[in-house]
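Progress report, Aim 2. The chain analyzed during this reporting quarter is listed below.
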Amino acid sequence: MTDRKNKIQTVCGLIEPAQMGLTLTHEHLMLQADRFFTPPSTARDQDKVEMPFTMNNLGWIHQNPYSYKPNLNFLQENETIVQEMKDYKSLGGQGIVENSSTGLGRDVAFLQKLSTVTGVHIVAGSGFYVDGFQTESTKQMSVEALAAQTRENICSGADGTDICCGVIGEVGCTWPLTDFEKRSLRSAAAVQSELGSPVIIHPGRNPEAPHEIMRIFLESGGIAEKTVMSHLDRTFLSTEKLLEFAKLGCYCEYDLFGIEVSHYQLCKEVDMPSDAQRIAFIRALLDSGYGRRVLVAHDIHTKHRLKKYGGHGFTHILENVVPKMKQRGFTEEEVKVILNHNPAEWLTFMK
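Predicted structure tokens for the chain:
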């Protein structure tokens, strides 16, 4: 058995935590997410579902990203992603956590090649995305069977290779949780308890979801301080609710940086915050003593956010957000803790 204790598992092997460097903890580099498709809300937009990707259409795509079918996967975009990672590396980016768990089209062989070509440390995700992205046979699996597959992905390899995953997640949850998602959560907790592995969770689109998830997860043996709750940007819309949740001790992730459109197509009740508002929430966490529990990313999962298609790309946080944070009073040390220290600490195996 490979000794992972006090190491980080990348797609190219184990590394020391100090080697990980500046890391974005929630991204997608190979993705098939066609099940996100949401039909246009008006009849006049029906003909836009598969229109050409042009500058004339980009405004509509920005407002309706999940109604444009070509936007929902990264197939045939390998070279695009290679260039994005080279750009990221050139600006000081050193690590990426790739969250395409089972159901999202993970390809660890591509991730390994990408890491080798670009020099970016890539950590691949295991575990299972939300119920609606799973096959019927997967949805019938027991907690033990789900745990066995996750354990194999970490200890032996994934996708028919010997390339090992280094994180459980993103573990997909909806609201309310389905029976499959509860089993998936319990299986993630069981493997984390056994291996001391990092876990990252996608909560349902409801402010009560993170609390319910953590209750089930911790009751099943999960470890709060090795666990990330993603997408808090679109989940907690007040500082009070955010700080109440932070007391549970898990990492609080703001991972939708670059989305500056208030209309949130997947949950119309939510007004998506701006980057400036994200920074303000993070400032509140730091001022309340939770600086060692903050992570950031873009969660790029649609083509229109890639530079090739007019988007901000994987360099946005480094090029635009970090300078904005410093303008708003963040110190160099605070930024380094968020981008370097916290990811490495989370990703390091305990056992």
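The mean pLDDT is 97. Strands lie at 8-10, 13-15, 23-27, 95-98, 121-126, 167-172, 199-202, 227-229, 251-254, 294-296. These observations will guide the mutagenesis work planned for the next reporting period.
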